[in-house]
Write a structure and sequence with these properties.
Order of helices and strands of chain A: HHHHH
CATH topology of chain B: AhpD-like
Order of helices and strands of chain B: HHHHHHHHHHH
Largest interface: A-B, 47 and 56 residues
Strand content of chain B: under 5%
Number of strands of chain A: 0
Number of strands of chain B: 0
Radius of gyration of chain A: 15 Å
Oligomer: heterodimer
Strand content of chain A: under 5%
Helix content of chain A: 55-70%
Low-confidence stretches of chain A: none
CATH architecture of chain B: Up-down Bundle
Number of domains of chain A: 1
Low-confidence stretches of chain B: none
Number of helices of chain A: 5
Structural class of chain B: mainly alpha
Structural class of chain A: mainly alpha
Helix content of chain B: over 70%
CATH superfamily of chain B: AhpD-like
Largest sheet of chain A: none
Shape of chain B: globular
Distance between the termini of chain A: 22 Å
Largest sheet of chain B: none
Number of domains of chain B: 1
Chain lengths: 102, 193
């Protein structure tokens, strides 16, 4: 049966703890969608919750605040993986509950 | 794409690969490929390992079923690029165009086996509302899907909730249907590695 467990852990560890151009704390905040202020907070929240509403302006605003394209790339990846990861973990917990493992 | 680095920031070897792809396929390089190949050590390589396992690893869901799930997740996220890309793969894999469009537009009433229908509806809810509860999962189990099939479907959901967000954030351009068909052929022959 397919098992993404290890590959998913490797991905999360790489983007959060491996070498990057954005700081580790910015990457982690994007992953957790936990920043409430700063130029990236609005973009990160949009990636997590309404990605299809992102516009050219959202990306240019981040760029104009002095953040490099490589940093934006990393932050968007972290925000997307973080949101998908929360959804995945919530559903796995529900599966455990339904299958009587709780 | 909205970030110039993703269009033209690749190294020499990758640019040569893109030129080869354009020559052989006679199609533009899809933006999803450009993102996977940009600083592949950061995102592309580790993510491809996840997606390959979810989409082509051992499962009692067929490859067509999993591509259909990917398309349904994309539809729920209203991600045009991913809807077109994975509808094309699912159609090719099932060999039946109508089935895919019917299932995507009305999974509740389309003709499909109950375990797959219930799974699609659950994945739709998870993607739309960002969570599901034990009752939602029990409905899928009651429809005949096994816990392992549900876990396998959740893996597909993880991958495509990542990729769809990147497609929308980075502004993937929507190429011709021929380009999506060429991509579908590649994904069925070679997978996501």
């Amino acid at each position: 049966m397919s098992d993404i467990g290890e590959a998913r852990k490797t991905l999360v560890k790489r983007i959060l703890e491996g070498a990057g151009i954005a700081s580790s704390s910015d990457r982690r905040a994007a992953f957790n969608n936990s920043a409430s202020t700063g130029p990236l907070a609005a973009l990160v929240d949009k990636v997590a919750r309404h990605a299809n509403r992102i516009t050219d302006q959202d990306i240019s605003a981040a760029r104009e605040s002095g953040i490099s394209e490589d940093q934006i790339f990393e932050i968007v990846v972290c925000a997307a993986v973080g949101q998908a990861n929360r959804q995945f973990n919530a559903a796995l917990a529900a599966l455990d509950g339904a299958a009587g493992k709780e | 794409m909205r970030l110039q680095i993703l269009d033209s920031g690749h190294g020499f070897g990758t640019k040569a690969l893109f030129a080869l792809i354009r020559t052989v396929s006679r199609q533009p390089v899809l933006d999803v490929v450009k993102v996977v190949k940009y600083r592949a050590d950061f995102y592309g390589k580790p993510m491809s390992a996840v997606t390959q396992e979810a989409m082509r690893g051992p499962s009692t869901w067929s490859i067509a079923d999993r591509e259909l799930m990917a398309a349904l997740i994309a539809k729920t996220n209203q991600c045009e690029f991913c809807i077109k890309a994975h509808s094309a793969v699912a159609q090719r894999a099932y060999g039946h165009e109508q089935r895919v469009s019917e299932l995507l537009s009305d999974p509740k009433n389309a003709q499909v086996a109950e375990p797959l229908r219930a799974t699609l509806l659950m994945l739709g809810k998870l993607t739309r509302e960002h969570t599901v509860n034990a009752e939602d999962i029990r409905a899928v189990l009651a429809a005949g899907a096994s816990p392992q099939q549900i876990a396998d479907a959740l893996a597909v959901c993880f991958s495509f909730n990542v990729i769809g967000r990147l497609a929308d954030a980075f502004g993937f351009s929507i190429p011709s249907q021929e380009a999506f068909d060429a991509g579908a052929k590649y994904l069925l022959a070679r997978g996501y590695r």
